Amino acid sequence: MPATSSRNAARVQRHVWFTIYSEYACIVTFCHHITVIQRANPAAQSSAPALVFSFDNAGALRFGVPSLPPAQLKPAHATLSMTGPTFPSQPNTSAGNSGGGGSSEFAYWAFISYSHSDEKSAAWLHRTLETYRVPGNLVGKAHRDGPLPRRLFPVFRDRDELASGHDLNEKIQRALEGSRYLVVLCSPRSARSLYVNEEIRRFKLMGRRERILAIIIEGEPKDVGGPADCFPQALRHPLRDDGSIDTTVALDPIAADARPDKDGPHNASLKVLAGMLEVGLDTLLQREKLRARRAMLRTALQAAAVLALAPLFVLGADAGLGLPGGESIRAWLDQEQMSVLRPPAESARVLADARKLRADLMAKFAEYRLPNDLYTNAEPASRKSSDGRIIDPTYWNTGQIISAIGRNPDLTPADAAIAMRGLRRLFTPDIIRTEPPAPGQPPVPMGWNEKDKIGNPTQGEVAAWICTALATCTDAMRRLEVLKGDPTSDAELAKDWATVTQVLGHHYHPQARGGWAMYPRQAEKDRYSHYTSTLMLMALLEARQAGLSWQGSTERRDELLRETAARLIAGYERDLDFPGWQSDDREMEARSLDGLTLQIYALLLSAENDGAIPPLPESMVADITAHLTRCAVRTLSYPLTSGEFSYVVEMDAGTGVRPMKFTEGINFHWYPWAIEACTQWQRRARRIPQPQLHITRVRRTLGHLVVDLGPEAIPMLGKGGNWTLAELLYCLGSVAPEKP
Fold first, then answer.
1. Is 0.70 surpassed by the pTM of this model?
2. Are 130 and 90 in contact (CB under 8 A)?
3. Which of 233, 221, 250, 239 is nearest to 197 (CA)?
4. How far apart, in whole angstroms, are the C-alpha atoms of residue 426 and residue 448?
5. Domain that includes residue 325, residue range
6. Among 254, 279, 304, where does a domain finish?
7. What is the three-class DSSP state of 639?
8. Of 9, 36, 111, 618, whose CA is between 20 and 30 Å from 536?
9. Distance (Å, rounded) from C-alpha 286 to C-alpha 280?
10. What is the DSSP string of 113-182?
């Protein structure tokens, strides 16, 4: 096996074993926590003394250890404060249900007496009592009301049972008569409730005072008669023979206490259940301990089964299968840089493949170069017309290709000289168009237009690409020291730069609001072109990189750059099919142009990285990250987007100026600018820390675009002309080791 394959196999094995170990550690930790919780509860230990019930003369329930005298029996308390945890409501119980076992004279196992201000606690207790499973060894055993059933069902709660009743008192009386036990929810509110006191009084009148069970949820039982007193008068005092409450005799009610610093809700509810079942509390505690052990065993067995399948499940999610929680697993793997099946390409591999692509593209462009060092969009085999004439060059393509060549970090001095010769050729009088001069004045340059569009106005996009080409080539020539000691060439470059800035500033920037026009003399002065403005942002960034001024002023250059970026940001729309920019023609369907959006993203990130504009809005940065992440699954057959740009231009038709409408259809390819956006995003992430999840995903996208799609990019993209190849070479210029 080759060494590379061995390393890959070892890496996969490490990842798989790490996943298995992580799952196993989670299970061991879970089981340990269950054991700690059990050991932390002294009542759950087998050595705990058995607790039994006793009743005082008032019928209140007492718990205690059998070996202790009655005077030393102590209450057990625990509270449910309404400011603490709350409990979900229990579904209503029909009044017509009968208990599962026991005497038929009782319809309910218990009647919950409470203040309606304690509704949440009453619902919790209702649910707890009705859903409690009686231990199997107690089911069927003798009870004063008959054999014990599997569940103590139903339990009466007046809000559930009497919501639709007409005679509340009569129904409550019937429910009290049909209940084996009265469970009083004790709180300062229930202590002051006339209904709670009356329910207790009536239950005692039935001769069932020994069947009254109390549970404290809030308040202080020692604050007798005070605002915190939680015991109703009928519970704290006995009844006279006439049924009235004898407040001259004070009892000391004992109750289960659900307050957090006492027994807590769980143990307090078990004490109430023990009273209803007439068994010692220890019997139920031992049963709870056994249930916990069985539950832990079931959990461990289930976890073991999950553990056996976990590696396959994680690998399946990593592979992109539509598994439940798959996206969350992939996000975790990316955050921890642990993906086995989707690892991002190594940076060295990306840089090497980008360099090879640049070399292949340079060789490809040599096939499109004409003898005059300009470029055509025609393949060599179709470069001659039917009459044998050589096809004319295209100035738009020439500007694109030379812009890309000038930005190539691997550019040689010889190739730089060829590119500069072609660029200088664009400024000769037979190519650049001029408008008729005023008397005694030199011709005013208008820009460039293809020979097959002589009757059309010049276009800002051609001028913008030529401006970019002049800036990248100037920077390359100085970097390679080709111009060193050649003042003539340096002066010629300065002259050409002055010409192109004059053309753009005079004809395509009519409004001082950051926007750039597609055509000169547009009738609608306030309309600007997203695409022309995008190309001008690129040209101004390259001018800044090359140290070139704008009409003699670097301050004016930087001001134009900021205004152009701000204008584009203002045109950003988040309510389209996906966030981005749409066509200038509002008559077209409102949809985001994918390729144009990625190009603007890349240039705005570059401008921010260079400190030329303020930081981008965080919402836009998040949109950029999401857009680039989606590009990681695209292929070169992913559809490109097209936009139409229509403007009315004031044309001189020979008989006077009249308006004419011109429409330009432009294709935008997403692939080159996704590469540029990824590299600029990574530059930004080195300045401003980003989540590892996003870093991993953008790295994966860049590796996919360069390493996976790169080998087929040139033949695939070249089918539609060399404009996409030119943009690809331009964008690959940023996939290089960062300058120190």
1. no
2. yes
3. 233
4. 9
5. 3-44+292-335
6. 279
7. coil
8. 618
9. 10
10. E--GGGHHHHHHHHHHHHHPBPPTTTTT---TTSS--SB---EEEHHHHSTT-S-HHHHHHHHHHTEEEE
